[in-house]
TrEMBL record:
InterPro entries: MLVIN_C. It comes from Hirundo rustica rustica. Residues 77-96 are annotated as: Disordered. Transmembrane segments: none annotated. It holds the Pfam family MLVIN_C. Gene3D superfamilies: 2.30.30.850. Keywords: Endonuclease, Hydrolase, Nuclease, Nucleotidyltransferase, Transferase. This is Murine leukemia virus integrase C-terminal domain-containing protein. Residues 16-68 form the Murine leukemia virus integrase C-terminal domain. GO terms for molecular function: endonuclease activity; hydrolase activity; nucleotidyltransferase activity. The keyword Transferase applies.
Length: 96
């Protein structure tokens, strides 16, 4: 009689290079028309050998995500200069 494992063994090699705190886009499929669409970016919370977890999408297979840059944050500041209002915009990325 041969014993079988109830769970598969971990892989000996990495199939993706995504790490927690990375930002990824998640592929979503629309029914009509059948076109791939990328949503995100979302921050990765956990990873396994073949999947990544985000707060918004839960566990997703590594073939359905791609690495992205951190989203940009825009801030505005209203100041008065020479009696006239002046609006200043600042752009920055999120800290990782």
């Amino acid at each position: 009689m041969e014993a079988q494992l109830a769970q598969t063994l971990p892989l000996d090699f990495a199939v993706h290079n995504i790490q927690p705190r990375d930002w990824v886009l998640v592929k979503e499929w629309k029914e009509a028309p059948l076109v791939a669409k990328w949503r995100g970016p979302f921050q990765v919370l956990l990873t396994t050998e073949t999947a990544v977890k985000t707060a918004e999408h839960g566990w997703t297979h590594h073939t359905q995500v791609k690495i992205s840059e951190a989203p940009e944050i825009w801030t505005s500041q209203l100041e008065e200069k020479d009696g006239k209002p002046q609006l200043t915009l600042h752009r920055s990325g999120l800290e990782q």
